[in-house]
Write a structure and sequence with these properties.
Largest sheet: 7 strands, mixed
CATH superfamily of the largest domain: Type I PLP-dependent aspartate aminotransferase-like (Major domain)
Distance between the termini: 66 Å
Number of domains: 2
CATH class of the largest domain: Alpha Beta
Radius of gyration: 22 Å
Bound molecules: pyridoxal-5'-phosphate
CATH architecture of the largest domain: 3-Layer(aba) Sandwich
Helix content: 25-40%
Oligomer: single chain
Number of helices: 15
Amino acid sequence: MDDPAVQPTGHPQTDAVHFGEKRWMGTITTPVALSSTFVFRDVDEMIAFGRNEVPHYEYGRYGNPTREAAERKLAALEGAERCLLFDSGMSAVTAVILALCDAGRHVVITDDAYKQTLNFVTRVLPRFGIAATVVPMGDYDAMADAVRDETVLIFSESPTNPYLNIADVDRIVRIARDRRVLSVIDSTFATPWNQRPLDQGIDIVIHSTTKYLAGHNDVLGGAVLGSVAATEPVYQWRRVAGGVIDPMSCYLLIRGLKTFGLRMERLNRTAAEVAGFLGQHPKVRRVYYPGHPTHRQHDLARRQMKGFGAVVTFEIDGDLEKTLAFLRGLRLCMLGPSLGGPESLVTHPALNSYYNVSREERYRLGIIDELVRLSVGLEEPADIIADLNGALDGIPG
Ligand SMILES: Cc1ncc(COP(=O)(O)O)c(C=O)c1O
Protein backbone atom coordinates (compact mmCIF):
# COMPACT_ATOMS: atom_id res chain seq x y z
CA MET A 1 0.00 0.00 0.00
CA ASP A 2 1.17 3.53 -0.74
CA ASP A 3 2.26 5.40 2.37
CA PRO A 4 -0.47 8.05 2.84
CA ALA A 5 2.13 10.33 4.42
CA VAL A 6 4.06 10.29 1.13
CA GLN A 7 1.35 9.97 -1.51
CA PRO A 8 -1.63 12.33 -1.42
CA THR A 9 -4.94 10.56 -1.95
CA GLY A 10 -6.73 13.64 -3.28
CA HIS A 11 -9.34 13.15 -0.54
CA PRO A 12 -8.94 16.30 1.59
CA GLN A 13 -9.82 14.77 4.96
CA THR A 14 -7.50 11.78 4.42
CA ASP A 15 -4.69 14.05 3.29
CA ALA A 16 -5.37 16.38 6.24
CA VAL A 17 -4.79 13.43 8.58
CA HIS A 18 -1.87 11.74 6.87
CA PHE A 19 -0.18 13.60 4.08
CA GLY A 20 3.15 15.32 4.66
CA GLU A 21 3.66 13.82 8.14
CA LYS A 22 7.22 13.00 9.15
CA ARG A 23 6.91 9.89 11.27
CA TRP A 24 10.40 9.53 12.70
CA MET A 25 11.15 6.60 14.95
CA GLY A 26 7.55 5.41 14.80
CA THR A 27 5.97 8.63 16.07
CA ILE A 28 2.41 8.93 14.78
CA THR A 29 2.51 12.72 15.03
CA THR A 30 5.23 14.79 13.40
CA PRO A 31 7.69 15.80 16.14
CA VAL A 32 8.39 19.46 16.89
CA ALA A 33 11.94 20.09 15.64
CA LEU A 34 13.00 23.05 17.75
CA SER A 35 16.53 22.96 16.39
CA SER A 36 17.54 26.29 14.87
CA THR A 37 20.50 24.76 13.07
CA PHE A 38 20.98 21.44 11.29
CA VAL A 39 24.42 19.87 11.30
CA PHE A 40 26.01 17.94 8.46
CA ARG A 41 26.84 14.29 9.00
CA ASP A 42 30.33 14.86 7.60
CA VAL A 43 32.37 17.05 5.27
CA ASP A 44 31.20 15.12 2.21
CA GLU A 45 27.56 15.87 2.99
CA MET A 46 28.41 19.54 3.58
CA ILE A 47 30.14 19.75 0.19
CA ALA A 48 27.37 17.85 -1.59
CA PHE A 49 24.79 20.22 -0.06
CA GLY A 50 26.82 23.23 -1.18
CA ARG A 51 26.71 21.81 -4.72
CA ASN A 52 22.96 21.38 -4.45
CA GLU A 53 23.31 17.61 -4.75
CA VAL A 54 21.58 16.60 -1.49
CA PRO A 55 18.71 18.17 0.48
CA HIS A 56 19.40 19.54 3.96
CA TYR A 57 17.47 21.85 6.27
CA GLU A 58 20.70 23.74 7.12
CA TYR A 59 19.24 26.59 9.21
CA GLY A 60 15.82 27.40 10.68
CA ARG A 61 15.09 30.38 8.48
CA TYR A 62 15.73 28.23 5.40
CA GLY A 63 14.22 24.92 6.42
CA ASN A 64 12.68 22.92 9.23
CA PRO A 65 11.15 19.42 9.14
CA THR A 66 8.02 20.32 11.16
CA ARG A 67 7.44 23.31 8.91
CA GLU A 68 8.04 21.17 5.84
CA ALA A 69 5.40 18.68 7.03
CA ALA A 70 2.85 21.46 7.57
CA GLU A 71 3.68 23.03 4.20
CA ARG A 72 3.32 19.76 2.31
CA LYS A 73 -0.02 19.03 3.96
CA LEU A 74 -1.43 22.47 3.18
CA ALA A 75 -0.09 22.36 -0.39
CA ALA A 76 -1.92 19.06 -0.94
CA LEU A 77 -5.16 20.52 0.42
CA GLU A 78 -4.95 23.61 -1.80
CA GLY A 79 -3.76 21.69 -4.87
CA ALA A 80 -0.55 23.73 -4.90
CA GLU A 81 2.93 22.75 -5.99
CA ARG A 82 4.40 24.70 -3.09
CA CYS A 83 3.33 26.20 0.23
CA LEU A 84 5.38 28.76 2.15
CA LEU A 85 4.41 29.35 5.76
CA PHE A 86 4.86 32.67 7.55
CA ASP A 87 4.44 33.82 11.12
CA SER A 88 1.09 35.54 10.41
CA GLY A 89 -1.35 36.14 7.61
CA MET A 90 -0.08 39.71 7.29
CA SER A 91 3.50 38.45 6.94
CA ALA A 92 2.28 36.30 4.04
CA VAL A 93 0.43 39.23 2.41
CA THR A 94 3.32 41.67 2.76
CA ALA A 95 5.91 39.10 1.65
CA VAL A 96 4.01 38.34 -1.57
CA ILE A 97 3.67 41.99 -2.52
CA LEU A 98 7.17 43.09 -1.53
CA ALA A 99 8.79 40.03 -3.08
CA LEU A 100 7.05 40.57 -6.41
CA CYS A 101 7.14 44.36 -6.74
CA ASP A 102 10.19 46.56 -7.31
CA ALA A 103 10.11 50.34 -6.88
CA GLY A 104 8.22 51.89 -9.77
CA ARG A 105 5.78 49.00 -10.06
CA HIS A 106 2.06 48.99 -9.36
CA VAL A 107 -0.63 46.79 -7.84
CA VAL A 108 -4.41 46.67 -8.24
CA ILE A 109 -6.47 45.78 -5.19
CA THR A 110 -10.21 45.56 -4.47
CA ASP A 111 -11.64 48.07 -2.01
CA ASP A 112 -13.03 45.68 0.58
CA ALA A 113 -9.81 43.79 1.27
CA TYR A 114 -8.84 43.21 4.92
CA LYS A 115 -8.25 46.56 6.60
CA GLN A 116 -4.54 46.00 7.31
CA THR A 117 -3.90 44.71 3.80
CA LEU A 118 -5.43 47.91 2.42
CA ASN A 119 -3.41 49.94 4.94
CA PHE A 120 -0.25 48.25 3.79
CA VAL A 121 -1.00 48.71 0.10
CA THR A 122 -2.17 52.33 0.27
CA ARG A 123 0.04 53.70 3.07
CA VAL A 124 3.20 51.59 3.26
CA LEU A 125 3.86 50.64 -0.36
CA PRO A 126 4.18 54.28 -1.54
CA ARG A 127 7.14 54.65 0.86
CA PHE A 128 8.91 52.05 -1.29
CA GLY A 129 7.91 53.65 -4.58
CA ILE A 130 5.20 51.09 -5.31
CA ALA A 131 1.87 52.53 -6.42
CA ALA A 132 -1.59 51.06 -5.99
CA THR A 133 -5.02 51.50 -7.51
CA VAL A 134 -7.96 50.53 -5.32
CA VAL A 135 -10.94 49.39 -7.40
CA PRO A 136 -14.51 48.74 -6.27
CA MET A 137 -15.15 45.08 -5.51
CA GLY A 138 -17.19 43.60 -8.33
CA ASP A 139 -16.28 46.25 -10.91
CA TYR A 140 -14.28 44.20 -13.38
CA ASP A 141 -14.13 46.96 -16.01
CA ALA A 142 -12.47 49.20 -13.41
CA MET A 143 -10.12 46.34 -12.54
CA ALA A 144 -9.10 45.82 -16.17
CA ASP A 145 -8.76 49.59 -16.74
CA ALA A 146 -6.58 49.96 -13.64
CA VAL A 147 -3.93 47.60 -15.04
CA ARG A 148 -1.07 49.53 -16.61
CA ASP A 149 2.38 48.70 -17.97
CA GLU A 150 3.98 48.78 -14.49
CA THR A 151 1.30 46.58 -12.89
CA VAL A 152 2.62 43.38 -11.35
CA LEU A 153 -0.43 41.86 -9.72
CA ILE A 154 -4.16 42.03 -9.04
CA PHE A 155 -5.04 41.30 -5.42
CA SER A 156 -8.50 40.35 -4.19
CA GLU A 157 -10.13 38.44 -1.37
CA SER A 158 -13.08 36.09 -1.54
CA PRO A 159 -15.30 36.04 0.43
CA THR A 160 -14.55 39.45 1.92
CA ASN A 161 -14.89 40.93 5.36
CA PRO A 162 -17.42 41.84 6.74
CA TYR A 163 -19.97 41.72 3.86
CA LEU A 164 -18.94 38.34 2.44
CA ASN A 165 -18.72 39.69 -1.09
CA ILE A 166 -17.64 37.10 -3.62
CA ALA A 167 -14.95 37.83 -6.20
CA ASP A 168 -15.63 36.35 -9.63
CA VAL A 169 -12.43 34.31 -9.74
CA ASP A 170 -12.78 33.32 -13.41
CA ARG A 171 -13.06 36.98 -14.43
CA ILE A 172 -10.01 37.96 -12.40
CA VAL A 173 -8.05 35.13 -14.02
CA ARG A 174 -9.14 36.29 -17.49
CA ILE A 175 -8.13 39.91 -16.82
CA ALA A 176 -4.80 38.90 -15.30
CA ARG A 177 -3.93 36.53 -18.16
CA ASP A 178 -5.07 38.96 -20.79
CA ARG A 179 -2.93 41.75 -19.31
CA ARG A 180 -0.03 39.42 -18.35
CA VAL A 181 -0.07 40.24 -14.65
CA LEU A 182 -0.26 37.88 -11.66
CA SER A 183 -3.51 37.16 -9.85
CA VAL A 184 -3.52 36.80 -6.07
CA ILE A 185 -6.48 35.71 -3.94
CA ASP A 186 -6.63 35.84 -0.15
CA SER A 187 -8.85 32.81 0.39
CA THR A 188 -8.84 32.91 4.21
CA PHE A 189 -12.63 33.12 4.60
CA ALA A 190 -13.22 30.18 2.27
CA THR A 191 -10.40 27.72 3.02
CA PRO A 192 -9.43 25.01 0.51
CA TRP A 193 -12.35 22.95 1.79
CA ASN A 194 -14.78 25.40 0.19
CA GLN A 195 -12.87 26.80 -2.79
CA ARG A 196 -9.62 26.16 -4.66
CA PRO A 197 -8.71 29.29 -6.65
CA LEU A 198 -5.53 27.69 -8.06
CA ASP A 199 -7.71 25.14 -9.88
CA GLN A 200 -9.49 28.10 -11.52
CA GLY A 201 -6.18 29.56 -12.72
CA ILE A 202 -5.24 31.99 -9.95
CA ASP A 203 -1.45 32.30 -9.61
CA ILE A 204 -1.05 32.73 -5.85
CA VAL A 205 -3.37 31.94 -2.93
CA ILE A 206 -2.85 33.42 0.52
CA HIS A 207 -4.33 32.31 3.84
CA SER A 208 -4.27 33.58 7.35
CA THR A 209 -3.81 30.10 8.84
CA THR A 210 -4.69 31.73 12.17
CA LYS A 211 -8.32 31.22 11.20
CA TYR A 212 -9.97 27.99 9.98
CA LEU A 213 -6.82 26.10 9.02
CA ALA A 214 -5.22 25.99 12.46
CA GLY A 215 -8.77 26.36 13.70
CA HIS A 216 -8.43 26.61 17.48
CA ASN A 217 -7.77 30.30 18.24
CA ASP A 218 -4.34 29.42 19.62
CA VAL A 219 -1.78 30.12 16.89
CA LEU A 220 -0.90 32.82 14.36
CA GLY A 221 0.27 31.92 10.88
CA GLY A 222 0.06 32.68 7.18
CA ALA A 223 0.48 30.70 3.98
CA VAL A 224 1.43 31.48 0.39
CA LEU A 225 0.56 28.80 -2.16
CA GLY A 226 1.09 28.36 -5.86
CA SER A 227 3.45 26.90 -8.43
CA VAL A 228 7.18 26.82 -7.72
CA ALA A 229 7.68 29.38 -10.50
CA ALA A 230 5.04 31.83 -9.18
CA THR A 231 6.18 31.55 -5.56
CA GLU A 232 9.95 31.50 -6.17
CA PRO A 233 10.41 35.26 -5.47
CA VAL A 234 8.44 34.80 -2.21
CA TYR A 235 10.59 31.81 -1.28
CA GLN A 236 13.75 33.82 -1.88
CA TRP A 237 12.25 36.79 -0.01
CA ARG A 238 11.57 34.65 3.08
CA ARG A 239 15.14 33.34 3.07
CA VAL A 240 16.37 36.94 3.26
CA ALA A 241 13.67 38.76 5.21
CA GLY A 242 12.54 35.99 7.56
CA GLY A 243 9.02 36.10 8.92
CA VAL A 244 9.12 32.29 9.16
CA ILE A 245 6.61 30.47 11.30
CA ASP A 246 8.08 28.71 14.37
CA PRO A 247 8.05 24.89 14.73
CA MET A 248 5.56 24.82 17.62
CA SER A 249 3.08 26.88 15.59
CA CYS A 250 3.60 24.43 12.71
CA TYR A 251 2.79 21.55 15.06
CA LEU A 252 -0.41 23.29 16.16
CA LEU A 253 -1.32 23.96 12.53
CA ILE A 254 -0.78 20.28 11.64
CA ARG A 255 -2.80 19.25 14.67
CA GLY A 256 -5.60 21.63 13.74
CA LEU A 257 -5.64 20.35 10.16
CA LYS A 258 -6.25 16.75 11.27
CA THR A 259 -9.90 17.69 11.89
CA PHE A 260 -10.10 20.22 9.06
CA GLY A 261 -12.81 18.50 7.01
CA LEU A 262 -14.89 17.63 10.05
CA ARG A 263 -14.77 21.18 11.33
CA MET A 264 -15.52 22.75 7.95
CA GLU A 265 -18.48 20.45 7.23
CA ARG A 266 -19.95 21.22 10.63
CA LEU A 267 -19.21 24.96 10.40
CA ASN A 268 -20.71 25.23 6.89
CA ARG A 269 -23.86 23.49 8.09
CA THR A 270 -24.27 25.43 11.32
CA ALA A 271 -23.62 28.78 9.62
CA ALA A 272 -26.32 28.02 7.02
CA GLU A 273 -28.74 27.22 9.84
CA VAL A 274 -27.81 30.38 11.74
CA ALA A 275 -28.15 32.52 8.58
CA GLY A 276 -31.58 30.97 7.96
CA PHE A 277 -32.65 31.75 11.52
CA LEU A 278 -31.40 35.35 11.37
CA GLY A 279 -32.97 35.88 7.94
CA GLN A 280 -36.46 35.33 9.28
CA HIS A 281 -36.10 37.18 12.61
CA PRO A 282 -38.12 40.42 12.76
CA LYS A 283 -35.36 42.24 14.63
CA VAL A 284 -32.80 41.51 11.90
CA ARG A 285 -32.93 43.89 8.94
CA ARG A 286 -30.61 42.02 6.63
CA VAL A 287 -28.32 38.99 6.50
CA TYR A 288 -25.13 38.65 4.48
CA TYR A 289 -24.16 35.03 3.91
CA PRO A 290 -23.10 33.66 0.50
CA GLY A 291 -25.04 30.46 1.12
CA HIS A 292 -28.26 32.38 1.82
CA PRO A 293 -30.57 32.79 -1.20
CA THR A 294 -30.89 36.54 -0.49
CA HIS A 295 -27.13 37.07 -0.98
CA ARG A 296 -26.76 39.05 -4.18
CA GLN A 297 -23.96 36.77 -5.40
CA HIS A 298 -25.49 33.52 -4.26
CA ASP A 299 -25.33 32.03 -7.78
CA LEU A 300 -21.69 32.98 -8.23
CA ALA A 301 -20.87 31.60 -4.77
CA ARG A 302 -22.59 28.32 -5.66
CA ARG A 303 -20.62 28.12 -8.91
CA GLN A 304 -17.18 28.52 -7.41
CA MET A 305 -17.58 27.30 -3.82
CA LYS A 306 -18.32 23.89 -2.34
CA GLY A 307 -19.47 25.40 0.96
CA PHE A 308 -19.84 28.95 2.21
CA GLY A 309 -17.83 29.15 5.42
CA ALA A 310 -18.92 30.17 8.86
CA VAL A 311 -18.99 33.96 8.96
CA VAL A 312 -22.49 35.41 8.98
CA THR A 313 -22.90 39.19 8.96
CA PHE A 314 -26.20 40.89 9.72
CA GLU A 315 -27.83 44.20 10.51
CA ILE A 316 -29.93 44.74 13.60
CA ASP A 317 -33.20 46.46 12.72
CA GLY A 318 -32.63 49.55 14.84
CA ASP A 319 -29.78 51.87 15.74
CA LEU A 320 -26.48 51.77 17.64
CA GLU A 321 -28.25 51.63 21.00
CA LYS A 322 -30.30 48.60 19.97
CA THR A 323 -27.26 46.91 18.45
CA LEU A 324 -25.33 47.36 21.71
CA ALA A 325 -28.33 45.99 23.64
CA PHE A 326 -28.17 42.90 21.40
CA LEU A 327 -24.44 42.49 22.04
CA ARG A 328 -24.96 42.90 25.80
CA GLY A 329 -27.59 40.18 25.71
CA LEU A 330 -25.30 37.47 24.30
CA ARG A 331 -24.33 34.74 26.77
CA LEU A 332 -22.64 32.04 24.69
CA CYS A 333 -21.21 33.96 21.73
CA MET A 334 -18.21 35.93 22.94
CA LEU A 335 -17.12 39.40 21.84
CA GLY A 336 -13.80 39.40 20.06
CA PRO A 337 -12.02 39.69 16.73
CA SER A 338 -10.91 36.85 14.46
CA LEU A 339 -12.82 33.87 13.13
CA GLY A 340 -12.54 30.23 12.27
CA GLY A 341 -12.12 28.80 15.78
CA PRO A 342 -14.32 26.48 17.89
CA GLU A 343 -15.85 29.35 19.87
CA SER A 344 -18.58 31.50 18.30
CA LEU A 345 -17.23 35.04 18.20
CA VAL A 346 -19.04 38.27 17.55
CA THR A 347 -17.55 41.57 16.44
CA HIS A 348 -19.11 44.95 16.02
CA PRO A 349 -17.03 46.29 13.11
CA ALA A 350 -17.97 49.95 13.74
CA LEU A 351 -16.74 50.07 17.34
CA ASN A 352 -14.13 47.33 17.09
CA SER A 353 -12.13 47.29 13.82
CA TYR A 354 -13.13 50.80 12.69
CA TYR A 355 -13.09 52.59 16.10
CA ASN A 356 -10.47 55.08 14.87
CA VAL A 357 -12.22 55.89 11.59
CA SER A 358 -14.62 58.84 11.44
CA ARG A 359 -18.33 58.02 11.21
CA GLU A 360 -18.51 59.60 7.72
CA GLU A 361 -15.63 57.48 6.47
CA ARG A 362 -17.07 54.38 8.12
CA TYR A 363 -20.41 54.90 6.42
CA ARG A 364 -18.66 55.49 3.11
CA LEU A 365 -17.05 52.07 3.60
CA GLY A 366 -20.43 50.59 4.50
CA ILE A 367 -19.51 49.97 8.14
CA ILE A 368 -22.78 51.07 9.67
CA ASP A 369 -23.67 51.14 13.38
CA GLU A 370 -26.10 48.21 13.18
CA LEU A 371 -23.66 45.81 11.56
CA VAL A 372 -22.69 42.65 13.47
CA ARG A 373 -20.27 39.96 12.30
CA LEU A 374 -20.63 36.48 13.72
CA SER A 375 -17.99 33.79 13.34
CA VAL A 376 -20.04 30.67 13.93
CA GLY A 377 -18.24 28.11 16.11
CA LEU A 378 -18.46 24.41 16.80
CA GLU A 379 -21.03 24.58 19.59
CA GLU A 380 -24.40 22.83 19.23
CA PRO A 381 -26.27 24.83 16.54
CA ALA A 382 -29.40 25.00 18.70
CA ASP A 383 -27.39 26.64 21.51
CA ILE A 384 -25.94 29.28 19.17
CA ILE A 385 -29.40 30.03 17.79
CA ALA A 386 -30.94 30.15 21.28
CA ASP A 387 -28.25 32.64 22.36
CA LEU A 388 -28.88 34.87 19.33
CA ASN A 389 -32.63 34.57 19.80
CA GLY A 390 -32.40 35.52 23.48
CA ALA A 391 -30.25 38.56 22.72
CA LEU A 392 -32.54 39.66 19.86
CA ASP A 393 -35.64 39.25 22.03
CA GLY A 394 -33.92 41.30 24.73
CA ILE A 395 -33.58 44.36 22.47
CA PRO A 396 -35.89 46.98 23.97
CA GLY A 397 -38.74 48.36 21.87
C1 LIG B 1 -8.85 37.96 5.05
C2 LIG B 1 -7.69 38.16 5.97
N1 LIG B 1 -6.44 38.15 5.48
C3 LIG B 1 -5.37 38.32 6.27
C4 LIG B 1 -5.51 38.52 7.63
C5 LIG B 1 -4.30 38.70 8.48
O1 LIG B 1 -4.01 37.51 9.14
P1 LIG B 1 -3.21 37.47 10.53
O2 LIG B 1 -4.11 38.06 11.56
O3 LIG B 1 -2.96 36.01 10.72
O4 LIG B 1 -1.98 38.27 10.34
C6 LIG B 1 -6.78 38.52 8.20
C7 LIG B 1 -6.94 38.74 9.64
O5 LIG B 1 -8.01 38.92 10.18
C8 LIG B 1 -7.90 38.34 7.34
O6 LIG B 1 -9.16 38.36 7.83
